[in-house]
Amino acid sequence: MFDDRSSLSRTPHHAVALDCLEAAIEAAAPDRAAREAVARDGETLRVGDSEYDLTAYREVVVVGGGKASVGVARVITEVLDDRLTGGVVVAEHPDTLDTVSVRVGDHPVPSERTVTATAAVLETVRAADASTLVLFVVTGGASALLTAPAGDLSLADLRATTTGLLESGAPIEAVNAVRKHLSAIKGGQLARLAAPATVVTFALSDVVGNDLSVVGSGPTVPDETTYADTLDVLDRYDVAVPAAVRTHLEAGAAGDVRETPGVGDAAFDRAETHLVGTNSEALESAAAAAADAGYDPLLLTSRLRGPARHVGPTVLSVAEEIAATGNPVSPPAVVVAGGETTVTIDGGGGRGGPNQELALAVALELDGPAVFAAVDTDGEDGSSDAAGAMVDSETVPDGERRRANEALRGHDAGGYLDGVAATLYTGPTGTNVNDVVVVVIPEP
Predict the structure, then answer these.
(1) How many other C-beta atoms can be found within 10 angstroms of the C-beta atom of residue 409?
(2) CA 44 – CA 433 distance, rounded (Å)
(3) What pLDDT sits at residue 267?
(4) C-beta of residue 257 within 8 angstroms of C-beta of residue 187
(5) Second label for 418, Cα 20 to 30 Å away, from 135, 326, 411, 433?
(6) What is the CA radius of gyration of the chain?
C-alpha cells in the first residue's frame, strides 16, 4: 500500500507502524463496509436492520457523492442488479459503474465541473416521486463534491468562503454549518427535494463522533444549525467572505430566506440513514494488527481534534508514560488513535497537511526509540498528495532543529519531511474515515 515500503521499514518497529496503518485503511474500504450493511433476498432489500419491499417502487436510483462514494455505490449496484434503474454519484477521480453515472468534481474547493456534476444529482432527485426509492451515498469529501450554490450566490462566492473557512482552523462542524446555509443540497435539503420519495442513506463517516448532520454536510438528515449560527462562525473565526455571502446569511437570519429543514420536518417522514463505516472500526483493525505482531495495543481515542502541532505531542506523552512506567500497558506496545486535527494558516504556508504537521511537531520532541506515524485514510493529507508521515528520533537531528522549527511555524511540514524521506505516499485510497495515528513503543 505504501510507496517504497522496503526502505521505510528499516526496523521491525517501523514495519509494525506501517502494518497498523494498512490494516486501518483496508478496514475502511467502502466496498467492505457496504457489503456488511446491504443484502437482497428476492424482492426484499435489507439495509442494516431495515427492510424495503422492492415491488413497492417503480424506480430505484442511486445518487450521492464523496471520496468513497463509488465504492459504496458499486456494492449497491451489484446487490440490486436488474432492479436498479439509474443514478449518478460525484467522486474526486474518474471511474465507471453499471447503470450509475460517475461524475468528477474537485476537493477541497469546488469547481465549475463540481457544480455541473451536482446538477445531475439534483435532476435525478427532482424527478423522484412516491414510487421512487432513492439510495443516497454520502462519504467524506461530499461537502465539496456536492456543490449547488443557494439563491443568487455564485461558485466564486462559495470558493472564497470555503478557502477562508479551511484556513481559519475552525472545526468541521462549524465549517459545515456555513456550507449548509450557502447550498441548495446540504443540510437536509436533498431530502426536501426528494419528498415524497423514500430516501435511504448510506453514510461512511469522516467526522469525529459520527454526527450524521455533519458528514458531507448532511444532505438527507435534519439540520439543527441556523443562519444565525453561521454568522457566529464567521465572526468567531474571523473569516472574511464575499459581500454576497454575508448578505445571504444575514437575510436568512432575518427570516427572509427559508431555513434548512430541522427535526420533525416532513422532509424526513420517509427518510432513514444507516452508518456503514467509521474511524473506530479502522482503529480496531489497527489495534488487532499490533496484537498480531506481539505488541500490546492501546486504543486511545477516535476523537482527536484541535491544532495538529499540539495534539501530536499530547499523544506522544501517552507513549512516553508507557515507556517509562508500563502504564497503562506494558512495552512492547502500540498506541492507536484517530480523529481530525486542524491547521490554522496564519502566515507562511508550504507543503503538507495536518498529519504531517502533527508528525513534525512530534519529531521535534522524540528522544527515545518510539516510532510515530499519522495518515489521512483517503491518502491525501490536507491539500497535499502525501497521506501523512512516519518519524522517529533521527528525523530531526540536532543540527536541523532550527530548520525543522521554521518549517513547522511556516506550515511547511511536508517540505521538511519530504526532504528527509519521512513522508508516506499511498495515492488515493478510495475511502475516507478521518485520520489514524500510531505510536510503536519497543521493549526497553
Answers:
(1) 13
(2) 29
(3) 97
(4) no
(5) 433
(6) 22
pLDDT at residue number 232: 98
What cell was used for 249?
Answer: 446569511
Q: Which of 383, 375, 315 lies closest to 353, judged by CA?
A: 383
> Which amino acid appears at position 179 of this protein?
R
Q: Show the cell assigned to 20.
A: 497498523
Residues of the chain with pLDDT under 50: none
Residue 171, C-alpha cell as written in the block: 472545526
**Helical H segments across 64-134, by residue range:** 69-80, 112-126
Is the fold of 5-27+279-441 the same as that of 36-148+183-225+260-277? no
Domain ranges in the chain? 5-27+279-441, 36-148+183-225+260-277
Cβ contact 230:239 at 8 Å: no
Which CATH superfamily includes the segment(s) 36-148+183-225+260-277? Glycerate kinase, MOFRL-like N-terminal domain (3.40.50.10180)
The single-letter code of the amino acid at 409 is R
CATH 3.90.1010.20 fits 5-27+279-441, yes or no: no
Element (H, E) at 258: none
Give the model's pLDDT for residue 346. 75
